[in-house]
Design goal:
The chain is built from six helices and eight strands. By secondary structure, the chain is of the alpha+beta class. The chain has one domain: Histidine kinase-like ATPase, C-terminal domain (Heat Shock Protein 90). The strands form two sheets. It has a six-stranded mixed beta sheet, with helices on one face. A two-stranded antiparallel ribbon has the order 2-4. A hairpin with a 2-residue loop joins β7 and β8. It starts with a strand and ends with a strand.
């Protein structure tokens, strides 16, 4: 188990914002491009036999884009004017983002309300837990309340793993090499926990990854 510690250096505000913006652009470009391709097919007089396929592509991609935007508003943004979120609301955000993939999601999050910081930590942790299962498996996301809030994500599957960039981000280390896009969300999760007065712990074994956050109420 590796507990977080203060990193040697932190990206400044502009650098952090640029990295987050870059990740969001990367996430949005695929469904946006698919919608554009579907519209091109609809306008092509020689491809009218593919009209149903084009409409299906546009519909699926639009749903994915809406899910990405809804998730990003809580995970990275101000999340509208809401100050607290229910466990069910957050579960719908994560399911909308990760649905249709190879991994299954077991949402065992307690009822009650979660603050903005807790909601941000919860949805990012859930997303990263699911991302640790590229070849399929089972992810369990749970919370437990006591003197503080414990958020846990356990991923189990034949190739469950964390990339080196993700490990660096989750432990509050700067990116030495690798892809910034694979580093920024784990680092953002670590930063969210730290700034809220909490701590993030990481366990990575063969076929199993566990992320645990302890945050104050």
């Amino acid at each position: 188990m590796t507990d977080t510690a203060a990193p040697p250096s932190l990206p400044d505000g502009q650098a952090l914002a640029a990295l987050v913006a870059g990740k969001l652009c990367h996430d949005f470009i695929s469904p946006a491009g698919a919608i554009s391709s579907g519209l091109d097919l609809l306008r092509d007089p020689t491809a009218q036999d593919m009209r149903d396929d084009a409409m299906g592509l546009i519909e699926a991609s639009a749903k994915k884009m809406v899910a990405l935007v809804a998730f990003a508003r809580v995970a990275f943004g101000a999340a509208t004017s809401a100050e607290r979120f229910s466990g069910d609301e957050l579960g719908e955000l994560v399911a909308g983002l990760t649905g249709g993939g190879r991994a299954t999601l077991d949402w065992q999050v307690e009822g009650g309300d979660y603050s903005k910081a807790q909601a941000r930590a919860l949805v990012n942790l859930a997303s990263l837990t699911m991302a640790a299962l590229p070849s399929g498996g089972a992810a369990v996301i749970s919370t437990r309340r006591g003197e503080g809030l414990q958020i846990s994500g356990v991923a189990e599957g034949p190739r469950a793993r964390l990339k080196p960039e993700a490990v660096a981000g989750l432990t509050g280390r700067p990116l030495d090499e690798g892809l910034p896009g694979q580093w920024i969300q784990p680092y953002w999760l670590w930063l969210t926990a730290r700034d809220a007065g909490g701590a993030l712990a990481v366990e990575a074994d063969e076929g199993r990854v566990a992320l645990t956050i302890h945050m104050p109420n």
